[in-house]
From TrEMBL:
Pfam families the record matches: Ribosomal_L3
Source taxon at top rank: Bacteria
GO cellular component, one term: cytosolic large ribosomal subunit
Signal peptide stretch: none
Keywords for this protein: Ribonucleoprotein, Ribosomal protein, RNA-binding, rRNA-binding
Lineage of the species this protein comes from: Bacteria, Pseudomonadati, Thermodesulfobacteriota, Desulfovibrionia, Desulfovibrionales
Organism, scientific name: Halodesulfovibrio spirochaetisodalis
Name this protein carries in UniProt: Large ribosomal subunit protein uL3
MF (Gene Ontology): rRNA binding; structural constituent of ribosome
Function: One of the primary rRNA binding proteins, it binds directly near the 3'-end of the 23S rRNA, where it nucleates assembly of the 50S subunit.
Single GO BP term: translation
NCBIfam families documented for this protein: L3_bact
Gene giving rise to this polypeptide: rplC
Subunit: Part of the 50S ribosomal subunit. Forms a cluster with proteins L14 and L19.
Record-linked InterPro entries: Ribosomal_uL3 (IPR000597), Ribosomal_uL3_bac/org-type (IPR019927), Transl_B-barrel_sf (IPR009000)
Family according to the record: Belongs to the universal ribosomal protein uL3 family.
Length: 209
């Protein structure tokens, strides 16, 4: 699947800014890049077009020997995170070149991918928005229970995919059609209208819609 050019960043948190008409706009602040191009691929040699970018400086002791050699080809230092973005056409970027927040503009639509906040083991009311059992007389300690989950003699089993208690959150999620409210290139910041997946300081990938 080909994608449009994007940038890795860190979710700083949420705040609000005021529009020209005085209305308050809730925005997510993303520290985006700068992300150096570590490797470029093209259809002629690799079978597809892509660029590999990096974000977040790292100490040498936190990087494997293989990755140290990989980063050395770009001669831009060591990094914590890398990401490969497939492109429809051969990339015009060069290895070692920086991708900055300037690739986005105010009013543009973007997609933001991140890892959602982990909630641990949760019941059906929190995880699946179940209504719960009745709280009237005669119901004891079943108020947040899922109710019946199985069937009679036929088929005599619980179907796969049944909504039940279990692990919630900590999954990769993409939010689309988010509007870029402002780009502060000198601070490497992108202000996006609305919420994006993940906790504060979480790694996110911002791509053109």
């Amino acid at each position: 699947m080909t994608e449009k050019l994007g940038i890795l960043g860190r979710k700083v948190g949420m705040t609000r800014i005021f529009a020209n008409d005085g209305s308050a706009v809730a925005v997510t602040v993303i520290e985006a890049g700068p992300c150096p191009v570590i490797q470029k691929k093209d259809a002629a040699t690799d079978g597809y077009n892509a660029v590999q970018i990096a974000f977040g400086e790292a100490k040498e002791k936190h990087v494997t020997k293989a990755m140290r050699g990989h980063f050395a080809k770009a001669d831009r230092g060591l990094f914590r995170n890398t990401c490969e973005i497939r492109l429809a056409e051969a990339p015009e970027l060069e290895v070692g070149q920086d991708i900055t927040a300037e690739i986005f503009a105010a009013g543009e639509k973007v997609r933001v991918t991140g890892t959602t906040i982990g909630k641990g083991f949760q019941g059906v009311m929190k995880r699946w928005n179940f209504a719960g059992m009745p709280a009237s007389h005669g119901h004891e300690k079943v108020h947040r229970s899922p109710g019946s989950i199985g069937h009679a003699t036929f088929p005599g089993k619980v179907f796969k995919g049944k909504k039940m208690p279990g692990h919630m959150g900590n999954v990769r999620q993409t939010t689309s059609n988010l509007e870029v409210v402002a780009v502060r290139a000198d601070e490497n910041l992108i202000l996006v209208k609305g919420a994006v997946p993940g906790p504060k300081n979480g790694l996110v990938l911002v791509r053109k819609q």
